[in-house]
Amino acid sequence: MHRVVSWLFICAAVASCRYLDPQEGRKNVLARVNQSYLYFEDIQDLLGPNISSQDSALLIQNQINKWATQQLLIDQAKINLDLQVQSSLEDLIQQYRTDLYTESYKSKIVAAQLDSVIDDNEMQAYYSLNNENFKLNEALVRCRYVHLDQSFSAIDEVQEALKRFDSADRELLEDFRLQFKSANLNDSIWVRYERLTNQIPPLKEKDIKALKNIKINQFQDSLGLYLLKIEGVLKRNDIAPLSYVAPTIRQIILNRRKQELTLKLEKDITKDAIGNKTFEIYEQE
Q1: 120-130 and 242-275 helices, crossing angle to 10°
Q2: pLDDT (tens digit, 9 = 90+) per residue, 186-203?
Q3: 237: left (phi over 0), alpha (psi -120 to 50) or beta
C-alpha cells in the first residue's frame, strides 16, 4: 500500500511540475538540485513495459536519490576544489570525451575494412620469423589415454588397441567409449602437462621424461585404472609448436592489420582535410 501511495505521489509531482521546466521543449521535472534538473525522460528507459507500478515507484525514487546525491557532491566539489584542480579535471573530461568519439569512430571504420582471413602460409611465415618468442613456460604433451573402472572386463584388449592404434583399434576404442570413465583419443593436439595430471592424478609423482619411452603407462588409484600412451613431450623453454600458438599468432596478425588500418585512416583523413581546406596550418610570425 505504501508503494502505491508513493507511486501516486510521484505521478502527481510529475504532473504538477510539467510547466516548471526551465528548458524549452522538456517536460516532467522530477527533481531539482540548485540549478540542475532531473527529468522523467532521463530515466524512462529504465522502466520496462512489464514492470509493475510498485516497482516503478521504487525505481524512480531510487534514481532520484542517486541523482540528487551525485549532483550535490558535484556542486560541493565545484565550491570546495580550487580552480587549478577543477581546470585539470575539465581537461581530463574533455580528453576522455575526445578519446571516446575518436576511438569509437576508428574502431567502426577499421572493423568495416579489416580482412580477418589469415591463411596458413602467413601463419607459418610469422611463426618462422618469430618462433624464438614462443618459448614454453610449461611442459606440453601429445597423448592418448583412457580411465577405466577397476572392474572393466577388457583391459588387455583396450591396452593393446591404445598401443597399436590403427584404424581398427580406433574403431574398437570408440565402441568402448561409453564404458570409459574418461578418455582422450586425439593425440595430435598438444595439451598442458598440468592439465593431464589433473585428469590422471598419479602422474603428479612421475617424471615426464620417462613416460615417453614406455609403450603404455599404467596407473591405478582409488578412482580406477589409467592407461596412457605418450606420443610427444615438449619441456619448459622449448619452442612451442605452431599448432599450439596458432590462436596467439592469429590475434597478433589481426592486431597488426588493425594498427596499419588505423594509421592509414589517420593519415588519409588529415590529407583529405588539407586537400579540401577544412584543415589549415597557419605560419607563426
Answers
A1: 100
A2: 999 999 999 999 999 999
A3: left
